[in-house]
């Protein structure tokens, strides 16, 4: 059974590492048009681009997408989604997927899985995904967000630090040196968080109305606000990570090669 859901694509023109990223040309079309196309391959009942820039709006309209102009001062994508939900008058039970505007290769099946996970667990406020970490350099990379799960598939916590910390394998000396081990110990579920979320609109409203949590500020991870509020986060563990999005000029060239081919 297909699960009804909406997709919101937050897209900002400004980017520290890749200015004007949503308009970067790939195979004759701007990046944002490819992301809209990826969303259309799913069964989403409505796809909305959320932006504060007229140039991005024009590109999204050219791709025949619905656009909501949002405020410029949003601190997070969650706040931008909450504004879209309020503007369009979506009811509390509506399921909304947050698809970043730099993910042109996201599989439609992943959007379906997260919407389905949220619909199947009415007690859960939001859903996300993770995949296994196999390399020690990724576990010790602060740009790779790690997550730890309970047996029921709900998130216990997220961190930029290497968690879980395997005391006997890593030891205090390794921590002090800041050097990753040559290989990860076997049998430990090291998981990398993927920044794709499904929300209920009621959850979006609650998150956007709440102040930043202290752990959220410390780690710069907005999902920690949800945990601080006592909200449950369901995490789907993927056997294979989806293609990486466009963060850098190197990423852009990789995606160009893939999509133009």
Description:
The structure is a single chain. This protein is an alpha/beta fold and 261 residues long. It has a single domain, classed as Spore Coat Polysaccharide Biosynthesis Protein SpsA, Chain A (Alpha-Beta Complex). The chain contains ten helices and eleven strands. The strands form two sheets. Strands 1, 4, 5, 6, 7, 8, 9, 10 and 11 form a nine-stranded mixed sheet that branches. It has a two-stranded antiparallel sheet with strand order 2-3. A hairpin with a 5-residue loop joins β8 and β9.
Q: What's the CATH first level?
A: Alpha Beta
CATH homologous superfamily designation: Spore Coat Polysaccharide Biosynthesis Protein SpsA, Chain A
CATH topology: Spore Coat Polysaccharide Biosynthesis Protein SpsA, Chain A
Provide the helix percentage: 25-40%
- Helices, by number, come to 10
- Topology order in helix (H) and strand (E) letters: EEEHEHEHEHEHEEHEHHHEH
Q: Biggest sheet, open or closed, and with what strands and sense? A: 9 strands, mixed
Q: What multimeric state do the chains show?
A: single chain
- The CATH architecture category equals Alpha-Beta Complex
Distance between the termini: 34 Å
Mean pLDDT score: 92
How many DSSP-defined strands? Answer: 11
Radius of gyration, in Å, reads 19 Å
Question: Tell me, what's the shape?
Answer: globular
Q: What fraction of residues sit in β-strands?
A: 15-25%
**Tally of domains:** 1
């Amino acid at each position: 059974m297909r699960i009804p859901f909406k997709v919101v694509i937050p897209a900002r023109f400004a980017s520290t590492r890749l200015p004007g990223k949503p308009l970067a040309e790939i195979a004759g079309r701007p990046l944002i048009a490819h992301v809209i196309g990826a969303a259309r391959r799913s069964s989403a009942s409505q796809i909305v681009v959320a932006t504060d820039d007229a140039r991005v709006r024009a590109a999204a309209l050219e791709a025949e997408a619905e656009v909501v102009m949002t405020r410029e001062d949003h601190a997070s994508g969650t706040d931008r989604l909450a504004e879209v939900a309020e503007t369009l008058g979506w009811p509390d039970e509506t399921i909304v997927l947050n698809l970043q505007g730099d993910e042109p290769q996201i599989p439609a099946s992943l959007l379906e899985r997260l919407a389905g996970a949220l619909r199947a667990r009415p007690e859960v406020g939001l859903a996300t995904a993770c995949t296994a970490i196999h390399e020690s350099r990724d576990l010790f990379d602060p740009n790779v967000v790690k997550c730890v799960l309970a047996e029921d598939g709900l998130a216990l916590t997220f961190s930029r630090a290497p968690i879980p910390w395997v005391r006997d394998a890593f030891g205090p000396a390794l921590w002090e040196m800041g050097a990753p081990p040559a290989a990860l110990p076997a049998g430990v579920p090291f998981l990398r968080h993927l920044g794709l979320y499904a929300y209920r609109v009621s959850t979006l409203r609650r998150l956007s109305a709440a102040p930043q949590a202290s752990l959220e500020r410390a780690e710069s991870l907005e999902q920690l606000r949800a945990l601080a509020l006592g909200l449950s986060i369901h995490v789907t563990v993927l056997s294979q990570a989806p293609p990486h999005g466009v963060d850098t000029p190197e990423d852009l060239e990789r995606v160009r090669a893939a999509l133009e081919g």
